[in-house]
Design a protein that fits this description.
Structural class: mainly alpha
Largest sheet: 4 strands, mixed
Helix content: 40-55%
Bound molecules: zinc ion
Number of strands: 9
Distance between the termini: 20 Å
Shape: globular
Length: 693
Amino acid sequence: MKFIKKDSRVVGVCLALIAVVVLLLPALSQTPAQPETHGIVVAHMDLAVKPGDDFYAYTNGEWLKRTEIPPDRATVGVFSILDNISSQRTADLIEQAAKSAAPAGSDVRKIADLYNSYMDEAAVEGKGLAPLRPQFEAIAAIQDKHQLAYALGQTLRTDVDALNNTNFHTPNLFGLWVAPGFNDSEHYTAYILQGGLQLPDREYYLAENEHMRDVRAAYAPHVAAMLKLAGFDDTDNRAKHVIELEHAIAEKHTSLADNEDIHKANNTWSQADFSGKAPGLDWPEYFRGAGLTQQSSFIVWQPAAFTAESALVASAPLENWKDWLAYHLIESMAGVLPKAVSEERFGFFGKTLTGTQQQRPRWQRGVGVVNGFLGDAVGKIYAEKYFSPEAKAQAQALVANLIEAFRKRIDALTWMDPTTKAEAKAKLSTLYVGVGYPDSWKNYSAYEVKADDIFGNVWRGRLFDYQQDLARLGKPIDRKWWSMTPQTVNAVNLPLQNALNFPAAILQPPFFDPKAPDAVNYGSIGAVIGHEISHTFDTEGSAFDSKGRVRNWWTPADLKHFEEATARLAAQYDTYKPFPDLSLNGKQTLAENIADVAGLAAAYDGYHAALAGKTAATQDGFSGDQQFFIAFGQSWAQKEREAVLRQQVVTDSHSPDRYRADTVRNLDPWYPAFSVQPGQTLYLGPEDRVRIW
Ligand SMILES: [Zn+2]
């Protein structure tokens, strides 16, 4: 939840769901928003709407009216437009790599071979399901629950991430996350998280509404179809048992809102504890399969789910678990199997779950695969080519102003205890802010890429990432480690490192434009930077001190004030209803909503500091303050299909974009800037506006 926006590339980095990633990747045919414009885009606004009634429509209404979502995507908006640019550049880099005849073993050669192996559709069709056969045979040979435990252990990957590029979902039984320790922030620690579901969240199995019932009705025939394509008989029956198993797991899963509470997550179990606290699964065999026999302890994020899932391994029939394993296997590799399989997967996970009408062209999916497995190799070339030292220096200056704005806001707080203030400022002083690209790059020498083996390349790529992460366990942490690649259009706060990453690809128009007025840069990228800094002090940030240690550095009175203020923000978001049968969950989205309000407030301060008392130039009759808020509203322009918007409300810790834009209603200066009056839809009395910092 610590990034600015849930984004296809974030999922791409986690490597778990290639087929999903690629269908969310942006189409390149879309025209970027008027590159000659430097400042707010008046043509996107609907000036007939009163800003106080619907600020999102006021800033984006005309754009929303004339923009269609392309058939091969689930959303279109500012982030996808920037993604287009980044993807096109990445595609060009890959094309050049493919032509360069780089030496064997070099990163450039790996980029070329990985891409070409993905593009060789004839080879994929020719091999059919043969690449899966050894895996299916291994599953078929499982004789008992001990062997099952070993096989389940072999599926463990580092495909979850609890606090950085937040992702609580893995279809494997469990997921591993390697990060600085809650209780030893100087060393990398093993966190283990619940898993086992193909659908995005437990709600998909349990919620009683029409949309979820429709999804479930389509899921059973999809599971059966995948098993049939894999050559299984009696597929309706097998699918029924697989879904029963997933349903039983879903019932015991911890909800997303609870997953975000780190105090519930800090449970250290020694390896020996698992058999006593979560009996059922043969844990020694599981850890042996996972290559983790040497790991003495783990932080178990959801202990109750571990107990329940382990018990299910014991109680459900072996044959059902074997079918579950086979189905999950074919699903995980569907993106690099013949068209019949990848189309079946897209039909369900693309069309039914997100409303997207058709798959991306293969070459665009290929770019996604290369970014997923060789993201740093591409990113190194990308950063050299597209992020100048001048742009880096300008962005760093903006970051420095935002940090200063936060420091002043903390100083001015009347409710915060002086010792808490001192620690808050210490956190600001030790914050590592990465701008553009990392200081060091991932080493791919141990990743074997073959020019004619996309299945093997993906299989080995996931294993390579897993083994790289295991090798970090117990080692001293690197506070300058990046969790996003430079070509990612996003930004992230890494609370256990007390660090921020702002990749090169988000530091471009409309977020960051050296030729645009300050009002616009502060309203767009300034608010993003402020958002990420705010995470340093929010519900989770307040649990980590300046060294990334889990230490509650707030006094009880400070915390009480903070909780009261933020509870009112949660209640504000609970009232938003994207659909008559679906409201936002103010608790699930609280940390992000806090970051939006606080980030915008700090950006506003930073803007006025940059003005240094001068009056801003108007643009098309709009004052500096108006441009600032309009730029913020326009940075959230997005259209999404109903299915994917519903999925976001249920599974994402970020509110839908229109409500993020409307958070301007919590800022006092927004009212005079647009003459917002009582009685208008977004009007809040001064006492109802939520001020966090
Ligand atoms: Zn965030």
